[in-house]
Amino acid sequence: MSAEVDKSQQRPLSADRTGEDVRTSAMDLSSQVRWRLEQGHSGQLSDHDEVIHQTRVDMKRLRALWYLVQPGLSKHGRAQLHQSTQSVASALSGQRDQAVMLALLAEIDPGLPEGALMALEAEIHLRTVAAEVDGCPLEAALQSLELLDLTIRSVDWAAFRRRHLEQGLIWTGCKSQELCRRAIMEADVKALHRWRKWVKVWLYQVQWLLPDASTKWVGLLKPLGSNLGNIHDFDVFLELLRCIIDPELKAALEELEQVVQLKRRRELALVQEMAEVIYAKPAERRCHKVFDRWLKGR
């Protein structure tokens, strides 16, 4: 029987150490990723979709860490870290994107005719298969992880100081707040999808500092990111629908589009409710409080 795929545990940063602690925490997470990929590649973990999902989540956690510490790194150093981390995620992107779209189709299918269902499945495979790497995504990810580990070890952390963490956290929080304003007040769809990324970055950064933070606004970051992710998936799905040009399927696909649009509007309403709470106070102020609590070891 295959073992269950466990989530990784972030090793919180210590306020008593600086750059060396960042490197230690990053390598700790990387080692958990390596174990999961090796177990998946060997067949000990048979749920490859979950292995891929958790690995991509961990790469997002690491990229959030790089954004958190980047004020104290050289331009070359932070570019190397981001590129190496993205390489691991990219090795797995095709399979995961395909799984998400197929799952979404199964969830919202209002009883499509067989022809429409087959056309959609074919479009999903066409759009996602190109991102796979030689049919061995786990092996490719392991190879990229080797480079990531080398990069983490080689980056010069000597100039890094605690104040850089506060600067990085504030930069992320303010960016998230600005994208929220553009997404909701200006109905900017591109900003909406960028906002999704920065909400998750902000959440993971808070978790690197205060993994047990229990304030209401922090507790809403995860569901906000999930709801924004659902909207993103709906938008990608709608693009797939519009790529299918077949007069015989037009009515069925239009009906499906209406179902998806309704779900999207419901998600957007939830997003707006959560955003009102999260951004009720300036993001910079919230970030200062998180940093102060971290310094005090709470």
UniProtKB/TrEMBL annotation:
It comes from the Bacteria. Residues 15-283 form the CHAD domain. Signal peptide: none annotated. Pfam families: CHAD. Residues 1-25 are annotated as: Disordered. This is CHAD domain-containing protein. It comes from Marinobacterium maritimum.
